Structures are given as structure tokens and as C-alpha cells.
Amino acid sequence: MMAKFRQYFLILIFGLLLSACQPTSEHNENLTMNQQAYTLHMGEKGIQDFSKYSDGNVDNHPAGVSFRELQFSPPNLGKLTIENGSNSLLIEHAFSVLGTQYDKNEGIQVLDIDAGLTKEEFATPEQVYQSYVALMKRINQAGWKNYFFTDAPRIAKEDNIKHLSKSRDVIDPSYIFSFEEWKNIINNSPTKSLGYRLYANGVILDISLKRTAKNERNEEQYMLRFSFQSVRYNERDSIPDSDKMTPSEFEQAFKKRLIENKKYREKEERKAKAEGYHIDEEYTDPDVWSYVK
To answer: How far apart are CA 69 and CA 102, in angstroms?
Structure first.
């Protein structure tokens, strides 16, 4: 319920911000110059970040969930560094950030960021593509890798485009599509979008990239949604009543879930093979226990 509330809230805020202005070419040049630089952390440091940048404003809900928010309006969009050690990631042209804390003892557990792909609201297909390339290079240089949930089939990278044609999920972030591939993928996608699920250093990152509009000059508007989740929150939230368990009880529940997920993955991989997909037998799930326990 809270996830849906957060999604609807961000969509509303994002729509209002996008309608605020239609940049001129001079204005577009200023967008990069005027980006406000912020560094954000997950966990307890994230609470300190929001207190520093937003005067400590907190939206508390009866269920124990609290939200902290940053908003940016053109031409002063956000330039964010999401601090994660050697896997820190730069995000440009941010409109909004929502930090969510589900457990008062855990700090920021989820960061949702809405941003433009390009510095302009509308850009030519070639400009959009170059911004996509720059984004993927930053992601790869920061060391983020494809991530499968432990119950998901490990589709091999060689089936990346085949898999994408039946879903919106890219399974090989290291492969940067050519301009022609990029155009075909977006134009043939029912949702005009694609997504990535990545992992690095105890954090899961979901990225959604979507074409949201075209104007009369055939220029395009693309929006990005970044959702950072601590793997600790993600794993514990997947186990019912984990907050009520002793450390020993939780460890047993965690191991039991891994066994169940492995069996389910094996079944899904058999189905995928029957459909002509290759399975990446060398993919191993990252060891997240040190973050989760």
C-alpha cells in the first residue's frame, strides 16, 4: 500500500514539475550550469543528508513509515551523487528525491529519484541516444551489475534482446545498444520503456527509462526513475514477521527461503529452456547475508 502511495505521489509531483516550463535554447544551456549538487547516502547518514538539505522536514505516517523529500524546479535541477563506496553513482537533471524509512532504527532504506534523461525537456533522437550512452557508461564504470532475484531464471546475456522483446527488462547492462537498436527497442515497446535491475555493495537499483512524449518537431521527452533499496530492507521485507523474530529464527527463515527460491528458479529455468532461452549457469547470487543479518 505504501509503495503504491509513494508511486502515485511521485507521479503527481513529477507531472507538475514537467509542466512548469518549456526551455529555450539559452535556458537549456543554463540547465547544466545551474544543477544543484547533493550527496545522498542510504542508512543513518541518509537521515543526516535530508536534515541538512531539507531543514529536517519529515512526513510521518501512522504505520511508522516516514518520508523525506527534495524537489528541484527548472532551471535549478538536482545533480545527485548516491554514495555507495566505489559504486557511487552520479544522477543528473533530477526533479525529485523521496527517501523512505520503514524502520526507525534503519535510516533511509529506499531512495526514489525522478529525473530527465536529457538536460532539455525535449531533445532530438540523436541527443537522447547520446544521453542514454552517457548514463550507461556511468553505471558500468561505477561497477553496477545485473541482478536476478533468487527465484528468477538466470537468462543468459546472449538472449538479452530476445528477452527484452518479450519484457521490458535488460539483462546485460554492459551492452550498450547501437542507435538503430535503441530506436527499434523503444519504438516497438508497448510501454516505450525499458528497465534494469542492478546490484552493488548491499544496494539493489531498479532503473526505468521511458519515452513520455514527442512534440511537433519530432523531438522526444524521456524520463528516468531510479529506485535504490538496501538489500537488507528488501530481504527482510520478503520474510513475513521478520521484525518479530530472534536473530536465530530469522537466520533459519532466511535459509529456508533461499532453498524454496532455488527450487522455484530451477522450475522457471526449465520453462525458459523449453522456450529456447539459454541459462547463465555461471551467474551466482551475491552473498548478502552480511548486510541482512
So the answer is: 15
- Give 223-237 pLDDT, tens digit per residue: 999 999 999 999 999
For every residue of 17-60, DSSP letters joined together read HHTT----HHHHHHHHHTPEEEEE-SBHHHHHHHHHHSTT--EE
Number of domains in the chain: 1
Contact 269/159 with Cβ under 8 angstroms? no
Residue with cell 532461452: 277
User: For the segment 172-222, what is each residue's pLDDT rounded down to a tens digit?
Assistant: 999 999 999 999 999 999 999 999 999 999 999 999 999 999 999 999 999
8 A C-beta contact, residue 203 and residue 195:
no
Going by the DSSP 8-state scheme, the letter that residue 176 receives in this structure is P
**pLDDT score at 57:** 78
Q: What range does the domain containing 36 cover?
A: 2-292
CA–CA separation, 156 and 173 (whole Å): 12
Mean pLDDT, the chain, whole residue set: 90
Q: Is the dihedral of CA 65, 288, 42, 75 positive or negative?
A: negative
